[in-house]
Specification:
The complex is a heterodimer of chains A (1228) and B (235).
Chain A lengths: L6 H6 L6 E3 L4 E3 L7 H7 L4 E5 L11 E6 L2 E7 L19 H4 L2 H4 L9 E3 H14 L2 H9 L2 H8 L7 E3 L2 H18 L5 E4 L7 H14 L3 E2 L11 H6 L16 E5 L3 H4 L4 H9 L3 E5 L12 E3 L6 H19 L3 H10 L5 E7 L2 E7 L18 E2 L6 E2 L5 H6 L28 E9 L6 E14 L2 E7 H8 L22 H8 L3 H18 L3 E5 L1 H4 L4 H14 L9 E4 L9 H8 L10 E2 L1 H8 L26 H10 L16 H7 L5 H13 L19 E5 L3 H5 L3 H9 L31 E6 L4 H5 L2 E4 L8 E4 L6 E4 L12 H19 L4 E7 L34 E7 L4 H5 L5 H4 L2 E3 L2 E3 L4 H9 L17 H10 L6 H15 L17 H6 L24 H6 L17 H5 L29 E7 L15 H4 L7 E4 L1 H6 L7 E6 L2 E9 L7 E3 L60 E6 L9
Parallel strand pairs in A: 8-9, 8-23, 9-22, 10-11, 10-20, 11-12, 20-21, 23-24, 24-25, 32-36, 33-35
Antiparallel strand pairs in A: 1-2, 3-4, 4-5, 6-7, 6-25, 13-14, 13-19, 15-16, 17-18, 18-19, 26-27, 28-29, 30-31, 32-37, 33-36, 34-35, 34-37
Helix pairs in contact in A: 5-6, 6-8, 8-29, 9-21, 9-29, 13-17, 13-18, 13-20, 17-18, 21-33, 24-25, 32-33
Chain B lengths: L1 H27 L15 H26 L2 H6 L4 H32 L1 H6 L2 H27 L10 H9 L13 H16 L21 E3 L14
Classes of the chains: A alpha/beta (1228), B mainly alpha (235).
Chain lengths: 1228, 235
């Protein structure tokens, strides 16, 4: 072989004669092309792996990760998505710069490589273990010694994490769990991890382990305030939205509080493309957001007043498209698919009336099955009252009459009467609740009514539509306080809204007309994309319902290219049935404990102690006063009436109750449960929520994974620090003169450090990891098998490991498997025998429970208003057997119930027959003595992936067909043609790794995607007449639960933001010398992060100022002498932030923006006020619990995990800002 | 003994290192062969410091050639008197020295005081800056300070220059250096030390001055095949 010349040798060729051409204009260099190899090698790799990012952005983008010499090098977008259809743009490529930077984390300095335990705790543990030689006694000796407990709790968040072995970490955790189960019961442990769709198997690892033990999982969607309660209120559905491709079908789009290019980056191209097609785009946003640049019109609304804007647009649409120039399309849609023609009872009040609940068949004395749950319309032809099919009563009598055919129960066709005007018996005046910035008042208008004589009483009824027209001030020549024209300042005209929103009335009229006219012209292709900007408010549900008016009145919902598109943390687990079987261990035990996150944190962090606003100020003027003045009391009411869950459950251990009952002579399970009811009724036993500051009721252990609870989603950050964790904090307000509770016990001294152990599974040192007692090193998204899906597109994407988990990291599945193993080993000694666990469960949506409490009236057994009956007037109580030494065996195998019980979701169930045997072949079986023996293996994450895909209708055609057949039986409709062409399809890990594939249409979701159609929600309901899961089976404008009416929210209504100031009236704002300014405080999603993810990476930090920033308007900044990039302090009663000011005219005056989830781990100096490091974006926040969200046991107002329940809203706040002259980094 | 070391062994050692070091570095560190521009990090100091230093150092190099390599006998023979030579050496050499000194002072200050430049500097960057500063400062002192103030009858053209020429033709005479004042000696020793370090520092960029551009064709081809040793010269 010829020897290669050295670089110098080559260079010396310079002196050789050269070939030159073209009169010396060109020459042949004496140098070779070796240098190019460098660049070629840069892009060479050994393997390419398809995976995705398990981040909470709803993107679910398919990525290729490249590995070279065993090292992850870079990633690239996949470009092999199947084409959508020939006339529209494709999905590929998906991705954004944030995702493209992810490989930085694998080997970054932030990577958690080993198990860590806080040094103080580890030292205490080793001493205690040496002394006692018994892990459970050792743990007991630490947490029961106030000094020792305080020593390690008060050190949380202050560093001092030291490396420990997996063995030691698992032993401490298992000992803590066993001690807690023995002493208080399993419900004192809990797990928090959000958004299963972003990595389903990783979610399932922890939830499976905790569900087997009996520990509750905490919900996230409502806690994040991403859940729009309006959706269950209107549709009975959690959230169902169009995939982004469906934007391309729209003719008119309003982006309302949603910054599409920023927060839906991989999907934003559809918005650009549909604009080229000619679609008009309007942006409603208080600031000059990125979405505004897309828009033809910018409605720069004052923050928090969007409801007023929507009310005025509703006014215009009702007036012009229903009365003056009625659209047949709209009227037809309203009659068939909404509750507008349904009859309401009016309640007589002195000389006037107020709207009450829906009229029922039972009110008319009709002898029907479940007559209390069947609603009534007036037939236009016969002028008779008819009971249309499809109401919730039909749903649960299982007679195949649950459908939207325009027929009554007997099968006779009818024509609903929309308005009684013209056929009325008389016209009566109607008082309607009204809210503005000043006081809650009444508007008096009138409605045509029918009188019904029934059992000696006169019932006055009218339609929802007539009440709507009265409410919106549409004058049909009836007496009352109606506006004269659009400029009139009476509610709800375009002129009226201007005083709140600051938007010119004429523009509002124009947009409303265009939106509706487009819907007329295109048969419903007008769309509103809604986002967190309007969803995180206290009154966001009424705002949403006001906006949904526009959607429903124009017949756009359930039409491709039309309807609402709520994109706020709304990920969709496509393979839902299989996932929830594995994730909540439904294959072994039922029911799992599901706790609504907001209530849990509201009480655990003692935010309930800082309420300042009596509810009197927020309730309707139609009532004298609300049931309670304090929201916590409503929560306590909700728990005992079976509306909301409550874990920790009772002020006694749920494991000891059965033994106590036996001691009292109970023999059978029924007697045990009767004992529980008696104890509650007699007041000897309480729900934990009634005394949250009693040590017996504290939450004791919390597992957090796939989440940054403390620094990203912990609204009321400093309350978490003070009361939950017991470490130093920046709270500037106090609870001593706050609003007091009636039902929840007030203890003068608020506890600090309730939680015994916080365990975090993380791959980066996030804020939560720094506050945790134990940090377990997790594998990243490039190091495990998992599944990801979203509702932004119809694909299910796999995670595949590009490398094995490096250092001592493990996948989430393996970590919980390891914990289960250690736990079971210790349990064999400490919890050897089988235990009876009494589980209290709320009345659930999509189950017969939702027809437990008729007419939406509150009947409190504690006050003697009704008998206490489990499952009807109070929670259900169930006995679950716990065999703690078997937890590991159960964890690693698919249990017998997966073979026996039907699969399903959303009230639909079908047989899993054959799948269990098949999974034995796919996954192999467990070869080990005990309960797992011979069962399908779930030992490894990839087996869990296969199991989830095999047991779900969206990914298994056989099951999809069975699901549609079940839906046919329920509705009496013919539906299985929707899926018949795909019934033979199966998804597995290998097939979705080879290429993305669109999921199969399933009746557990409401959209029909047959034949390459884009997914749009409720198309099945509209086209195939499947009812909505609501009281009437139709889409609801009106909600008739007593508490909804108490808060004036029977109809959509405008309510201003809460009148909270930075400090409560009884508090003293700190005395500072600098000029200060009080501003509204908003925390929208940022450009350089997805929550706190990516925000701490070097790459993203270099893109914008590298550290926490707060945006404010230039004129506002001038008033307090703040220049761009100055350090400022921002504070209110809840906490303090120190950050740099970004001064910009794109921010409106009077408002400041701190973009979401800026963790305080980077470039965060100390605050002179709190003497702590200057806070996270959540330091100034505190949640406000809204009583209408606690309603349960009533049709669509029934609890579902992440489905209904109070939201952790945090927008209705003000802060004070001042310039910081000196910056202390707390480094001395 | 020391005389022998400092004026014979040490210079040869440094020159040997200089030559072999360059060959080694060029063959093994093609991608590191760079001036390591830090203009991205700081511009103002660099603008003045770099230009003054580079202009100055070229003039100083010329001065050293004129003063050290040209024998006194030659200038005498063409009629340039010692006095004129000396005066012009002090004025032009002094001016060039001062320019270079200002340049290197600015550059060194920049390297040490501008945080982002300091943090991105390697050890050799700092050594080079300090060595250059010392050498140039002493050179300026030797040219201006010593000649003007010390009123000594020392003449480097009769001592240092012949010694250096001897060194270059492999006939070094260390005895010539016996009477050389301290600062001249230090200037020379540090100078040779810099030559020794040179291949391992950013100073290699000196050899990458693209003078070949002056005669290169406008369009350059590179061939996949090995260039033959005797390529025909085409037109």
């Amino acid at each position: 072989m010829k020897k290669k010349l050295s670089p110098l040798g080559k260079k010396l060729r310079f002196f050789q004669p050269k070939e030159t051409y073209s009169n010396d204009w060109s020459e042949l260099s004496s140098q070779d092309r070796e240098w190019e190899a460098l660049y070629r090698r840069r892009w060479q790799h050994d393997k390419e792996v398809r995976t995705t990012h398990g981040v909470n952005c709803t993107g679910s983008c398919s990525w290729k990760v490249f590995v070279k010499n065993g090292i992850i090098t870079w990633e690239n977008q996949c470009t092999d998505y199947p084409a959508t259809s020939p006339d529209m743009p494709d999905y590929e490529p998906r991705g954004c710069p944030r995702g493209a930077s992810f490989s930085w984390y694998s080997y970054s300095p932030l990577r958690v490589k080993y198990p860590y335990i806080r040094g103080i705790l580890l030292k205490l543990w080793r001493e205690a273990l040496n002394k006692t030689g018994d892990p459970v006694l050792a743990w007991k000796s630490i947490v029961e010694d106030p000094e020792k407990a305080k020593a390690y709790k008060s050190a949380r968040g202050k560093g001092g994490l030291v490396r420990a072995s997996w063995e030691e970490a698992c032993t401490i955790i298992a000992a803590m769990m066993i001690y807690t189960i023995q002493t208080y019961g399993p419900d004192r442990l809990a797990g928090f991890t959000p958004i299963p769709a972003m990595s389903m198997v990783s979610y399932a690892g922890g939830s499976r382990f905790l569900s087997l033990i009996g520990a509750p999982m905490l919900s996230f969607y409502d806690w994040y305030a991403d859940l729009p309660p309006a959706s269950p209120q209107v549709w009975g559905d959690q959230t169902d939205v169009p995939e982004s491709g469906d934007w391309y079908n729209a003719g008119y789009i309003i982006m309302w509080g949603s910054n599409v290019p920023l927060t839906r980056t991989p999907d934003a191209h559809f918005m650009t493309e549909v604009r080229y097609k000619g679609t008009k785009v309007v942006s409603v946003s208080p600031d000059y957001a990125e979405s505004v640049r897309f828009a033809d019109h910018w409605l720069a609304v004052n923050p928090g007043t969007d409801g007023a804007l929507a009310q005025a647009m509703t006014h215009v649409i009702l007036k012009e498209f229903y009365i003056e120039n009625a659209s047949d399309y709209f009227l037809d849609y309203a009659k068939k698919f909404t509750d507008l023609p349904y009859l309401l009872l009016l309640e007589k009040k002195d000389d006037t009336f107020v709207a009450d609940r829906f009229l029922r068949a039972s009110d008319l004395g009709m002898p029907l099955n479940k007559a209390e749950w069947k609603t009534v319309v007036l037939d236009q032809t016969t002028q008779q009252f008819v009971i249309p099919k499809g109401s919730i009563g039909h749903r649960w009598e299982n007679e195949g009459t649950w459908n939207l055919k325009p027929e009554d129960e007997a099968g006779h066709a009818y024509q609903p009467t929309l308005s009684l005007l013209g056929v009325e018996d008389l016209v009566v005046s109607l008082d309607l609740p009204y809210f503005d910035d000043h006081q809650n008042s009444l508007i008096r208008r009138s409605v045509p009514v029918k009188q019904i004589e029934q059992q000696g009483k006169t019932l006055y009824v009218t339609t929802v539509y007539d009440v709507m027209l009265a409410n919106y001030g549409i004058n049909r020549g009836l007496p009352g306080d109606y506006p004269l024209d659009y400029q009139d300042l009476k509610p709800y005209t375009p002129g009226w809204q201007e005083q709140f929103t600051g938007i010119k009335g004429d523009l509002v009229i124009q947009i409303a007309r265009e939106f509706a006219q487009n819907a007329v012209d295109t048969q419903g292709r007008s769309m509103i994309i809604m986002g967190a900007g309007i969803n995180h408010w206290y009154n966001s549900d009424t705002t949403y319902r006001a906006i949904l008016n526009l959607i429903l009145l124009t017949g756009t919902q359930g039409v491709n290219g039309g309807g609402w598109a709520h994109y706020v943390g709304q990920e969709k687990v496509r393979p839902l049935e299989g996932w929830q079987t594995v994730a909540f261990a439904r294959d072994w035990t039922l029911p799992p404990r599901f706790q609504n996150g907001t209530s849990y944190y509201y009480f655990a962090t003692d935010q309930w102690r800082y309420e300042e606003l009596p509810l009197q100020e927020l309730t309707s003027a139609t009532i004298k006063q609300p049931r309670y003045q304090h929201p916590a009391d409503y929560n306590a009411l909700a728990v005992r009436l079976g509306w909301l869950p409550c874990y920790p459950q009772f002020n006694r251990s749920s494991l000891q109750l059965a033994d106590e009952a036996k001691d009292q002579g109970a023999v059978t399970n029924e007697e045990v449960l009767q004992y529980v009811v008696n104890e509650l009724k007699s007041g000897k036993m309480e729900f934990a929520v009634e005394d949250p500051d009693n040590p017996v009721n504290y939450p004791r252990g919390l597992f957090v994974w796939r989440a940054n609870l403390i620094s990203s989603s912990g609204k009321g950050h400093d309350y978490f620090l003070k009361h939950f964790l017991g470490t130093s904090h920046g709270i500037l307000g106090n609870d001593q003169q706050a609003l007091k509770t009636e039902e929840v016990r007030w203890r003068d001294q608020a506890p600090e450090g309730k939680l015994d152990l916080l365990v975090d599974l993380e791959f980066r040192m996030s804020g939560t990891a720094l506050y945790s007692d134990i940090v377990l090193p997790a594998a990243t998204w490039y190091e495990k098998c998992d599944l990801s899906s979203t509702d932004m597109h119809p694909f299910v994407h796999p995670f595949n490991p590009a490398i094995n988990p490096p250092w001592e990291t493990k996948t989430d599945w393996d970590i919980f498997k390891g914990l289960a193993q250690r736990f079971s080993e210790l349990a064999a000694t400490y919890l050897p025998s089988s235990k009876k666990d009494i589980v209290a469960s709320p009345l659930l949506h999509d189950s017969p429970d939702e027809i437990a409490q008729p007419f939406g009236k509150v009947r409190d057994w504690k006050k003697g208003e009704i008998e206490a009956i489990p499952g009807q007037t109070m929670p259900k109580f169930l006995i679950v057997e716990r065999d703690y030494p078997q937890i590991y065996d159960k964890f690693i195998s698919l249990g017998p119930l997966a073979e026996k019980n039907p699969l399903g979701a959303h009230g639909l169930s079908y047989s899993p027959q054959g799948m269990y045997e098949e999974l034995k072949k796919i996954n192999g079986t467990i070869q080990r003595d005990g309960v797992a023996s011979g069962r399908p293996s779930l030992e490894f994450d990839r087996q869990t992936v296969e199991t989830i895909l095999a047991l779900s209708s969206a990914t298994n055609g056989t099951l999809a067909l069975r699901a549609w057949q079940a839906e046919e039986a329920k509705t009496g409709l013919s539906l299985q043609d929707i899926v018949s062409d795909r019934a033979g399809e199966r998804f597995n890990l290998a097939s979705i790794t080879a290429q993305p594939k669109e999921v199969i249409s399933s009746p557990i979701f409401s959209g029909n995607t047959q034949g390459k159609r884009r997914y749009s929600p409720f198309t099945t309901n509209i086209e195939r007449l499947v009812p909505f899961r609501t009281l009437t089976g139709r889409q609801h404008f009106y909600t008739d639960h007593e508490i909804m009416l108490e808060f004036g929210e029977g109809l959509p209504i405008f309510k201003p933001a809460l009148p909270n100031l930075a400090f409560a009236a009884h508090e003293q704002a700190p005395d500072v010398s600098a000029k200060t300014l009080q501003l509204r405080y908003l925390t929208p999603h940022g450009k350089w992060n997805i929550h706190s993810m990516y925000g701490d990476s070097l790459i993203m930090q270099t893109l914008f100022r590298g550290g926490p920033t707060v945006w404010l308007n230039n004129e506002d900044a001038d008033t307090i002498d703040v220049k761009d990039n100055d350090w400022i302090e921002l504070y209110n009663r809840n906490g303090v932030v120190v950050a740099r000011a970004v001064v910009s005219h794109r921010i409106p005056r009077g408002t400041t923006y701190m973009y979401h989830a800026q963790d305080k781990t980077l470039n965060t100096p100390g605050s002179p006020l709190s003497h702590e490091r200057g806070g996270t974006h959540n330091s100034p926040t505190r949640i406000h619990l809204k009583p209408t969200h606690v309603i349960g046991g009533y049709a669509q107002f029934s609890y579902g995990f992440n489905y209904y329940g109070p939201t952790g809203n945090q927008r209705d706040l003000k802060v004070v800002i001042r310039k910081l002259e000196e910056v202390s980094w707390l480094e001395d | 003994m020391w005389n022998q070391f400092w004026w014979v062994i040490f210079p040869y050692l440094m020159l040997a290192l200089f030559v072999s070091g360059h060959i080694y570095r060029y063959n093994t560190d093609q991608l590191g062969w760079t001036a390591k521009s830090s203009e991205f990090l700081e511009k103002n100091y660099l603008k003045w410091g770099s230009i003054l230093f580079h202009v100055g150092v070229l003039l100083v190099f010329g001065g050293h050639v004129a003063g050290l390599l040209i024998p006194k006998t030659f200038t005498d023979s063409i009629g340039i008197s010692e006095k004129i030579f000396h005066a012009s050496a002090i004025t032009t050499g002094g001016a060039a020295g001062v320019i270079t000194l200002i340049g290197i002072v600015l550059l060194s200050l920049r390297r040490l005081t501008v945080k982002r430049v300091r943090l991105t500097s390697s050890f050799t960057d700092l050594i080079v800056a300090i060595l250059l500063l010392l050498i140039i400062a002493m050179g300026v002192y030797n040219t201006l300070g010593f000649n003007l103030l010390a009123k000594s009858d020392f003449n480097y053209r009769e001592t240092v220059a012949p010694w250096l020429r001897g060194l270059l033709v492999f006939a070094p005479d260390p005895s010539l250096m016996k009477t050389v004042p301290l600062f001249f000696r230090l200037h020379i020793i540090l100078g040779f030390a810099l030559f020794g370090l040179w291949p391992f520092t950013r100073l290699v960029h000196v050899w990458s001055v693209p003078i070949e551009y002056f005669k290169r064709s406008y369009i350059i081809y590179r061939s996949h095949r090995q260039i033959s040793r005797h390529a025909p010269k085409g037109k």
